[in-house]
Amino acid sequence: MRVLVDTNVVLDFLQEREPFIKDAAKLFELIDAGEIEGFIAATTITNIYYIVRRAVGLAAAEDAITQILTDLQICKVDRAILEHALALQFRDFEDAVQYACALAYGVDAIVTRDVSGFVASNIPVKSPGELTLSSN
Question: Which of 16, 27, 52, 45 is nearest to 126 (CA)?
C-alpha cells in the first residue's frame, strides 16, 4: 500500500505529540517494515523543519529531516503540481498541494488527522489509527 502522510501525522511522530503518537508510531513502524510505502510532499519538509526548529532547536530539526528522508519517498513539487493544486480550489493550499502530489504519485490513501481538509478527495482519506487497524 502506498500512502501520502500529511504534515500533522509526521509531526505527531517526530515530536511525540500526545495523544496521537501511538497511531503515528505504528504507521512509521509499518513503513519501516516495508508493509506500507510512505510519501510526503517536498514542500511539507520545509514546513516540518521550521516547526521543529522553533520548538526544540536546530539539531532536532536536522534529525527530523534525516528521519523523513530515511522513511519516506519525496513527491516532487513542480509547476504542474502547483498549477493543479491551484485549480483544485481547496480551502487550504498546503492540502491542495499534498492532494495533487497524491494524485501524481498514485497513492492508495492519504493519512491525516485533518480529514476535513480532503473532503473533495477521490483518494481514500484515513486517520493513522484507521489505516494501521486495516493493515493488521
Answer: 27
pTM of the model: 0.91
Task: List pLDDT tens digits, range 66-96.
Answer: 999 999 999 999 999 999 999 998 989 999 9
CATH number of 2-134: 3.40.50.1010
Measured CA to CA, the distance from residue 64 to residue 34 in angstroms comes to 20
- Strand 2-5, strand 109-111: pairing: parallel
DSSP line for 33-83: TTSSEEEEEHHHHHHHHHHHHHHH-HHHHHHHHHHHHHH-EEEP--HHHHH
Q: Which candidate, 53, 28, 46, places its Cα nearest to that of 94?
A: 46
